[in-house]
Amino acid sequence: MPNQNLQRSEAAERSALITTHSYDIALDVRSAPDPDTAGYTSRSTVAFSASQPGASTFLDFIAADVHSVVLNGVQLAVSDVVDGARIRLANLQAENRVTVTGTALYSSSGEGMHRFFDPADGQCYLYTQYEPADARRVFANFEQPDLKARFTFSVTAPAGWEVASNGAEAARLPLADDAGASRWDFQPTLPMSTYITSVLAGPYFKAEDHWSRTGDGGTRLDVPLALYCRASMAPSFDAAELFSLTKQGLEFFNGLFDYPYPWGKYSQAFVPEYNLGAMENPGLVTFSENYVFTSRAADSQYQGRANTLLHEMAHMWFGDLVTMRWWDDLWLKESFADYMGTLGVDRATDWDTAWVNFANRRKAWAYVQDQLPTTHPIVADIPDLEAAKQNFDGITYAKGASVLKQLVAYVGFDAFIAGSRQYFRDHEYGNTTLADLLGALSAASGRDLAEWARQWLQTSGISTLHAEVELAEAGGTVLKRVTLLQDAADPVTGRQEPRPHRLRIGLYNFDAAGMLVRTDSMETDLTGETTDIGALSGKARPALLLVNDEDLSYAKVRLDPVSEATVRSSLDRISDPMARALCWSALWDSARDGIAPASQYVDAVLRVASAESGIGVLLNILGNATVALEQYVPAGEREALRKSFAEGAARELHAAEPGSDQQLAWARTLATVTRTEGSMAGLVRGLLDGSERVPGLAVDAELRWSLWHALAARGQATEQELDAELARDTTASGRAGHAMALAARPEAAVKAAAWDAAVRGRELSNELLSATIAGFNTASEELLDPFVEPYFECLETVWAERSIEIASRIVRGLYPAVRDLGPAGTPEDHQVVARTDRWLSEHPDAPRALRRIIIEQRSHLVRSLTAQALSVSGHPVQPGLRAEL
Length: 885
Description:
Blueprint: H1 8-17, E1 18-28, E2 39-50, E3 57-60, E4 65-71, E5 74-76, H2 78-81, E6 82-83, E7 86-89, E8 95-107, E9 112-117, E10 124-129, E11 150-158, E12 162-165, E13 169-175, E14 178-186, E15 199-202, E16 205-214, E17 220-229, H3 239-257, E18 266-271, E19 278-279, E20 284-288, H4 299-315, E21 322-324, H5 331-348, H6 354-370, H7 385-390, H8 395-411, H9 413-427, E22 430-432, H10 434-445, H11 450-457, E23 464-471, E24 479-487, E25 501-510, E26 516-526, E27 530-532, E28 544-547, E29 556-558, H12 561-570, H13 577-592, H14 598-608, H15 615-632, H16 635-655, H17 661-674, H18 681-689, H19 701-713, H20 719-728, H21 732-744, H22 748-760, H23 766-777, H24 781-784, H25 788-801, H26 804-813, H27 831-842, H28 848-873
C-alpha cells in the first residue's frame, strides 16, 4: 500500500482538525488456531469531533479487506472511500461517529496481531505490537500519538484461552451460537495513544498477585498483578522473582514521582518472536520471552531483565501518562525510561552494578550510533513514520539516558525529580514537546536550560575528552599543569560543537598490596574546547589519571600515555568496578577508532579478562574481542590470533570456578571463536557428546545450539545431526538454533537456499528470518561473494514488497559487512564500499529509511577496514565515513 508512510505534516493537519473521544473495538479471533485462516474480523467504532464541519479527514487501516464504513449513520461505498491504507471521511459534522468493519491479517513479522504456533505442543498464541504505527493493522484508527482517546476492547476467542487487554476484564460471556468460544469485554481505559493499546490471547500460563500502598494522605492504592507466558515455558517461569521485582519497582516509582500509578492493573506478558525487548502498553506490558530463561543465564542477564522491567514501568508515567506529540520527541519517553530503569535497579533492588553495566553496554551502543554519518540529535527531525521506525536507536535510548545522567549532575537530583513531578501534574493524559519539559526542569532548578538543551539535545556527535599532562620538571613526578581537551566534531555537519561537561577526575595509584586505588578525585566543569585543572597543580603524578571518573558525562575518553601504559599492564588490578569498566571502554574505543591496533585489545582480553569479576563487563569485553578478531584485525594476523584466543578460551573454561558465570562466559566464547578457528573443534564435539566434561558446566539447550552452530560452520555437523538435536529440543528457541546452524554450513548450495528463503521466500517468521540470516553470514568471504551483486539488485524490491520490520532485517542483515582490506588499497577503494557508493548515487530518491540502513552498514564496513589498515600501515588512517541520506 503506497500511502502507509504517514507524514508529520499530515498528522499535524489532522490533529488540528479533529479531537478523538473514544474507541469501541471488537475483534473475533476464534479461528486463529486454524493455520489456514489468514485473518479475523475487526470492528472499530470511533467517536470524534471536528473543528471545521464539512471538512474531510482519513482513518488508517491496513487490512486484507474492508467490508463496511458507516459515518454518522450513513453507509459509505467502500470502493469510494478506501484508498490503500486510508479510509477517506468527507463532510464531517461537529460530532462524528464512524464504524469500520473489515478483515485484518494475522502477522508472522511481529507487527500488528502476531500469531505463533508453539512447536513444543502445537498451541496457538496471539499478541499485539504496534509501536510506532501498527495498531492500524488490527483496527481502524487515527494512528498518531497526539490523538488520544479512551479505548474499550471486546475479544471473541476460544473459550479455554486467557485473554487480556489494557483495561481490566469486565465480563466473560459464552457465545450462545458457539459452545467453543467466549467473548471477553474489558473496562474502558483512561485516555491513551493508539500505539500503546494491546491485546493478548491464547492458552497462556497465568500467575496472579497484587501490590498495595498507602499514601501520605491515607489513600490506598491497590494494583492487581498478573504474569503470562506460553504454557510450554511455565516450568522455567520464575514468577515469584518477577512479582518481587514488580513490587519493588511500583513502590520505588510511586514514591519517586509522587503520582499514584494511574492505570489500574499491572499485567506483564512474555511473548514469542518479539521484535523488541519490551513494550510499555499501560496495564499490559509485553516482553520478549527471551527473558524467561530456559537455559542457564548469567547474573548480568537477570540484572538486564530487571532493568527492562523497570524501564517499562517508568513508561507508565514517562510516555503513557504524558506522551510526546510526534515522534520528533520520542526521546521524551525513551531516554527517561532508559535512565529510570537503571536508577531503579540501582536504588530499588539488591544489584550494585547497574551504572557499571550502563556505562559498559548501553553507552557503548550510543557511542557506536553517534559516530555514524546518520547520527542525529536526541531531539530528532522525524518527517514520517518510516523515519520514526529507524530512530528507535542508541541515540534515542542510551545517549538520551546518558545526557539525563549528566543533567542530574548539572542541576542536582532533587531539582530533576521536582521538575519531573510538576511535568506529570501539568500534562497528565496529554502530549508534550521539548519546551514543556524544559520549562518544568528550569523552574525546579532555577536554571535556564535552553542553552544546555541546544548544546546537548539539539546537536549530533560524541565528545572525545583527553588530558594533556605537563610535569614541573622533565622526568619529574609533580604535576605542573593538567589541561582537559574536548574534541566534539559533529559527524553530520563537521563543525566543532563543544558541550558543557560536569566531570569527575580520578587519580589512581598502587597501594601496598599492588592494587590500583583512587587516592584523590575532584569535580570540575569543562565548558569549551580546553580547561586547565588548576587544582591538580603541585600534586604527584598519578599512575592513572582517569577523566570522567564515575561516568558522570557522555563522552569517549582517550588515556594519556602514562595512564594508558598503566592500564595495559595493570587493568586487572584496578579495584573499583566502574573505573575498571571505563578503562576497558577506553581501550575498546581506541581499537575501534583505529588509534591502536585491534590485536592489542584482544591481547589485553587474553591476558587479564580472567580476573574480571563483573560478569556483565566480562561478557561485553569477550564479545568485543571476537568482533575485533573477525573485523578489525587484518587478515594476515588473524589466523594466529584466532588460535591463541581459542586456546585461551579453552584454558579459562577449565580454570574458571565450576558452575560460575565466568565459566559460562568462556564456554560461550569458545563456541563463538570455533566458528572460524578449528583447533578446539574436538573439545566442542566432546562437550556435545559427553566425552569431554568440564566440572560445573551445564551443557544445556542454549549452549548446545551455540556449539552445534560452531561445528556446522566448520563443516563438521551434518543435517541429520542437527535434525536429531531439534528432535530433542522442540522449543521455539530450538527451532531458531536449528535454522541458524543449518544455514551456517559452508556449502554453496546451503548459502543459496538460505538466501532464497530470506529474500524471496515468505515462510520465515521474523525470528526464523534473523536466525537464517545469522547462519548465512557465518561463512568465509569467498563463499559469500556471489551474493554481493544480488544484494544490491534486490534492495528496492525488498523494501517495496515486505513490511518495514522484515525489510529492515533483510537489508541490514544481508549487507556484505565483514570483509578484508587485503594487502593493498584503501577502505574507500574496497569493492563493496565502491559498489555501495554506486548504489547510493544511482538511487538518490530511494526511501530515506532504506538509504539510512545502507549508509550505516557502509560506515561499519569502512570502520573495520580502517582498523585493519592501521595494523598494516602502522599509523592511523582517516576513515571516509560520510555519505548523504
